[in-house]
Amino acid sequence: MRALLLVDHGSKLPEANTLLETVAERIRAKGLFDLVIASHMEIAAPSIGVAFDSCVAAGAKDVTVAQYFLGPGRHSSRDIPRMAEEAAQRHPGVTWRVTEPLGLAEGVIEALLDRVREAGR
């Protein structure tokens, strides 16, 4: 079973945290993964570790931790990979990886330009 674990920073604002769950729902609808779970690096629940454990408890043998961050920084280059590794160590035999942040992906550029066009209306 393949799982996708989405992770953002986490916020005190519920609507900010709900946004990631909406992203997870849209990815679930595409049917590319058996399981898609939203998690947060800090501040909000579930944490990366709790969400990783949930993936494995549901039967995941392969977990991709996808960063919902735009650019590189301490969180994306050190903190999240470390948190994912700590969670993975509790589950020997589970394959896992951490994606790069969204950065310069073509879809991000197009989404930004869409927002610019919308603002001009």
What is the CATH domain class?
Alpha Beta
**Uncertain runs with pLDDT below 50, 5 residues or more?**
none
Count of DSSP strands: 4
**How many strands, what sense, and barrel or not for the largest sheet?**
4 strands, parallel
Summed up, the helix count is 4
* Residue fraction in strands: 15-25%
Shape label: globular
Please explain how this structure is put together:
This protein is 47% helix and 19% strand. The chain has one domain: 3-Layer(aba) Sandwich (Rossmann fold), CATH 3.40.50.1400. Strands 2-1-3-4 form a 4-stranded parallel β-sheet, sandwiched between helices. The protein has helices at 14-30, 48-57, 74-89, 106-119, and strands spanning 2-8, 35-40, 62-67, 95-98. The longest helix is centred in the N-terminal third of the chain and has 17 residues, at 14-30. The mean pLDDT is 95. The chain is an alpha/beta fold and 121 residues long. It is globular. The chain is built from 4 helices and 4 strands; from the N terminus they run E-H-E-H-E-H-E-H.
